[in-house]
Every structure is written in structure tokens, then in C-alpha cells.
Design brief:
The complex is a heterodimer of chains A (344) and B (292). Chain A has 9 helices and 14 strands. With 344 residues, chain A is of the alpha+beta class. Chain A has a domain of 60 residues. In chain A, the strands form 3 sheets. Chain A has a 7-stranded mixed β-sheet with strand order 1-2-3-4-5-6-7. A 5-stranded antiparallel β-sheet of chain A has the order 8-12-11-10-9, with helices on one face. The longest helix of chain A has 31 residues. Chain A is elongated, with a radius of gyration of 24 Å. In chain A, 32% of the residues are buried. The two termini of chain B are 62 Å apart. The mean pLDDT of chain B is 88. Chain B has 11 helices and 6 strands. Classes of the chains: A alpha+beta (344), B alpha+beta (292). At the A-B interface, helix 6 and strand 9 of A face helix 9 of B.
Chain lengths: 344, 292
Amino acid sequence: MTKQMISTATEQVTSLTASLTTGLKLGERYVQLLDQLATATVPTELLDAAGQLVEFDLNHAYVKFPQHYQPEDYYLLLMGRLLELAGIGDFAVKPDPMHRRLAMRLTTFENDYTFCFEQKRSRPGAFFCEQTDHEPLFNLDLAHHSLQFDNRALVDFLIVKEIANHNDLELQGVVKPLVAFANLLVEQLDFTINLGILATDNAAQFKLAAPELSLTVIDKLFVQTAETDTVLLSLPQNNGAKLALASDTALSLAFDPDDYTKQWFFMVTDAKAQLSFLDVLLHYPLVRDWYLANRSALAIRDDQFAYAPVDEHVVVNSPATDAEPIKEEAPASAVEEEDGENDA
Amino acid sequence: MISETTNGAQPISQIINQSIEQKVNYLQELKQAVANHADQAIYALLDQKRYAAEIMHREEKANDTGVMTLVDDLTAQLSNYLSTKLINYLSQAYPFFYYEEYQLGHYRMYFGNWWDRRQFGELDVLNIRFVFDQSEYAKLAKSFELAQAGQRYNGQRIEELSKENDRLQALIDSADKRDAKKEELQAELKEASARNGLFESSKNRETREAIVAKLSELENQDEEARTAAGKIKANNQQVLELSKENTILSYERKSIVDTFGSFEDFELANRKLYASYLQSLVADGKQVEADD
């Protein structure tokens, strides 16, 4: 707008029309991006549209758009479209008129789960949350092209709360499309992802958050195996224990004997590399009960991506110095801290 | 005068010659046996008397200490050399024992490959026998005995600790009740005290003293309750240790029963180990000959 004094009616009209035009153009651009997000079939175009929409400021002094979506909805739309294009029909995005938003529901089995994205101050991107407990299962950050699962939230949601209501296969059915989505982001859009305790690679190490582990905790598991067919074995170099869960499946709790820090970690090995640490917790009550009873000692560390401010290359931040876990499972996590915490 | 003959029979030089010849023969035989990895022959040379008795079933042969001490300085090396075949055999016969050579020719034994398995003694390779750790062995024997009576090794101790924990927990839980009772007693005491003095009746004094005694008992319970949480934790830790020992013993018993059928048969096999092993070497030797 001009700083000059508007002296004549014509000048005022011209000024108004100019302002209205920018407002309308803003609306036009918004419609264009929405359209792109709803109809494009190329993943990069979908990401481009969603990325712009979450940053889009639709506020204008002269032109109002009372009907519009919230940034959280664009994350959900993007996710829904990518899954749809990949033929993964486990989730459906539906309008949720009561809350004036979009919501995602599982189509694979009867349940009341509703998922939405939620934004939090001080943390980039948005969190995929189930709407009863608002556990932030993963963070999706379009600007940094990253997706990270939250180990604490996954355990709290699936292992602590939902295991009582659903069997292990049903709960795996919740996790499966989420992992598929994360993998889509890697394959189609070159995202960096952190699967956390959902990683199925046999070499994946699920590191403990606590800096030290009392062997008493392993003793407890050993004693629990006494009445079962499962034997807890000592590792050959006395660097931990290994639980044979099935003929070709084992859970190890170990440290690298050559590593002076003695960082303890879980490993899950199975012939087809299909099982994650979460799967073990879901399938084996022996491990699950022991894990939950000793969670402060056994909680898995959440490695957070940190972003260099200038070139924004993703680097993995090792939170080894965050020695004092305030909350279980998430010593380095700022996920559920509503008040701003510096993510250095 | 020094004579060249003993009792006029053999000249000394002849005795020396004979003795040296025996030693040379012995060493040559041993050398040959080592070259061929003929372990059975090595064992025969290292303990002739035992070999004769247990393998040849002849009692008459006495050990010729003159030749056998010749390789005394090689025991560690011989033990290491002979361990390969022996441990190979033992891994079949006693699949639950594991060995660690902690210095040349010296082998620690572990019972099992499970968590916190026990070190169970040593393997004496040259004598083909287990040198069990006596206290660990006694635990296992006792555990077998108790198992026959349907009892667990640390069962009684665990039960005592659990009961003690229940008692301590009850003390913690009843703190409020005690507080109420104390208030009640204090009021009673105040009333009784009002009537004391020079002319206090003996009945009143008795009442007063009884109240004081009750109060002090409650104080004692309070005192115990204050430290109860720590004791419960310590007891739980002890229960865990005892349960762990039980678990280890149950795995050990299972291993022995799976392989030998019973503890007695296990002990019998240990006593016959020397003969069983060397006979297996003979059988293997024949097998090799037959294959040729």
C-alpha cells in the first residue's frame, strides 16, 4: 500500500482494487495448491503442494476466506494421497465435521482409532497422533524432508495402552501402514527416516537410554524364563544375554566388548529380518512384562535429527549427554514438552 | 673301597646303560605317539599303572617313576596337546560343560551356556577327570536330593523372606491405624496422669504404666516401619539372587537328567571317564584301520 495520501475517489478505488486483486490472487494460488494436492499423481508435485500449503498465510486485510483447511490437514492429505497412489488402503482420510478438520481412520479392523496431525510449538513439522491419548507416534517434517518415529510414544500407545484391547496382529496392522508410508517417503521423495523400534533389519541396534545397566535387570528376566521353554543364554564374550524366542528368532541385550562406553542395546535377529523390537514386545508376553516392569532401566533411546541452521543438512544428533532422563523413554525428546525447549 | 659291581652281579655301567636305554625308549615311544597324535598311546605312557589297570585290566604293572618323571616339565604343553581330542569327546558326552583355557594347559569349566552360568571347577586333562568346585558340586547334589522330595533348593529361604516382606509391608500400611491408636492412648494417659501424685492408687499406677508400655510398643513399630521399605527392597534383591540360583540349579539338573538319566548315573560316568574316553580312542583307531 502506498504511503501517499489518497486524495481522490478514483485513487481510492484504484488502491482498493489493487488490494483486492492481491487478495484474490492469494485465494487463487491457494485453490491451485489445494487442487494440486488433491489431484496430482506425481509424488514430488504432492509434496511441493503440501509443503507450500503448510506455510501458506491466507490472511488478507481485504479478502477473507472463511472456509479453508488447517496446516495439520495438509500433512494428512499428503499422507493419504501418497498411500492411495501406492495402493496401500489401510488408512482412509475422511472429513471430521465435528472438529472441523480431516481425520484418518484405519480400514483394516474394527476400532475407534482416529489419527490427526498435531503441531507443537518449538518443534518443526507435525506429529501424527492418535486422538484419544494424543501420543505423537511420529514426526513428519516437510521442510527438512524427514520422518522420525517416537519410541516412547509407540510403547505407551501400543504396549501400555492398546495391548489390553487388541491382539498383537491387529496392533501390527496399525504399525504396518505407518512403516509403509515412511518407506514411501524414502523411495519416492528421498526423505531421511528414523524407524526407531520399528526397524526390522537384523543389524539394527536399539540403544538403551540409561547410560548404565544393572545386571540385576537381566537376572530378573533369567528368573522369569525358569518355568518356560525359553533359555536366556550368556553371550560368548560375557557381553550380554540372548533370549532364543523361536528356532530362528532371538532377542539380544548386549554391548560391544570393544566399545569402551559399554553402550547397551537390544538386537532382534530372525531369519527373514521381519521382526522389529516392537514386534517382540507385541508377540512375547515374557519380554513385554519384563520390559514394562523395568522400563526406566530398559527404555530405548530416541535419537533426534538435528538440523544445521544454514545448509539444513540432516545430521543425527546423539543425545549421549542428556544423561538425566526426566521422562521415561525420551531423555532427549522435546516432543511432549509444550513449553519451548531449544533443539540445539 | 668302591666296587664297580653291586652284590657282584651287574657292573654299574651296565645298570646305567640299561636305565638310559629305557629312558631313550620311553622318550622315543612318546615322541612317536605325539608325532602320530596317538593320544591313547600317550596316556598309556604317562600313567602306565592306571592304563594297565583300567584299560588292560592288569594289576601287576607298577609305574616306572624313573622314566615318567622325564616329561614333568612338559605337563602344561602335553595337557594343551591332549585337550583337543578330549574336549571334543567331552562335548558329546557332557554337552553341558564348557571350557576356557585360562593359561596354557589349564582349563576352567563352566556348567551350561545360560545367563550367569556357574564356574564349576577345572578339567584335569592329563588324568582325564573333572576337578569339581566342591561347594558348587554340593549345591547341585543337594538340589537333586531336594528335587526328589519335591522341594526347591532355596525354597524355604525364599518363603521366609516373602513372609518377612509381607510383615514389613503390613507395618507400613498400618501407620495411620497406629497414629489413631496413639492419640487414643495419649488421651487416656493424660487422664490417668491427672490422678497421680502422692496418693495415687496402685490400680491407677498399673493402668498408667500399661498405657506407657503400649505407647512405647507402637513407637517401636513406627521405628521399624520407617526402615521397612529399605528392608523390603533388600529382601527382594536377596529373593532375586536365590531365585536365580534355583533357576541355574534347575537348568543344571535338567541337563544332567537329559544326558545321563540321573545324578547317580552322572557320578558313575565321572568315575569311569578315564576308561570310557581311552576305549573310545581305541574304537576310533580301529575304525580308522577298518576304513583303511
